[in-house]
Amino acid sequence: MLRSGMQRRVVESLAVAVLLGAGVARAEAPPVWVGVSGCNALDEKKVRRLLAIELRSAPAEQAGPGITFVGIRCVGLQVVVRVEDPLTRKTVERSFDLGALEPGVRARLVALAASELVLSSWTELETNPSPRVPPSGPEPESPVRMAARAVVREKVQALPTASPARVERQSELSSDTELASRARFFRVLGVASMRTFFGSSHRLWGGGVRLSEERFAGVSWSADALVESGTVQTELRRYSLRTGTVGGWLLLYQRSGPLIARLGAGLRMGLIATAPGDTEGGGAAVAPWGWPLAATSLAIELPWRLAMDLSGEVGYVVLPLPGARESSLRGSWFSLQLGLGFAP
Q: If residue 5 lies in a helix (H) or strand (E), which one and from where to where?
């Protein structure tokens, strides 16, 4: 019995050596079946193609005995990669978050993670070909085992002297990973806004356009242009106002999956116009105004490159009332804004 096992291992080793011999032909991995479900944020065809390139295996037409199964499942931006390996007769799984990755590199990095998981499972065929406690299930055919072992050996031998094509691909992946690690999320939003004094029932309503981005690790920025109109009440009378402003924020942020919480400060400035009849002369008047502010927001990265942002501003302002009997209206001011847009 022992001699039979040794003979089988010798035959397998010789076959592997033939597959690797003199570098004449690169080993082709056993077929792999890939199943992708619920991953709207991924290009499924690209994931399958890149995984086949990384493993150098022909995609299987369907699942079956002796075929390694790679299941890729998404829950929002959370990805779970599950490998059911009939060659080692074990199942391995890994999960990670896509929210910190740019959309353009997600398929590539998911394929890389899946290939690493498959290879880590196949490595046991080389490091522990005859486990003391055999796993349950049918033993795979010898040629399939040898093909997987050949791929593992070739991967290990290729590490010190990688081919130029592989070096270029690894460099591209490293570059993509570096970009993704900065967790950039640029978005263009249409914004609806409401602005009022604390304790006042009168409001300005309006909207505009906002640009936002998590540009650096932990630091985010926003810039917008808003047009708002409505009424304010003083002790003397009610005024109809229209404002046009531009604002800028610089914020610290914390990301958890698709959610981004931000807190910071900024400045808003622009023009304010009173309606005809609000001034002593009976005509409309325009005056500049501006104020520093504190800002906060909760941004959500949605599927299909959509984004939503709920934000607020608060500050103390001196609101000029040009041409009126009173020069200004002073007080603490706050604004709520809802943005919906896309990440180009």
A: helix 2-20
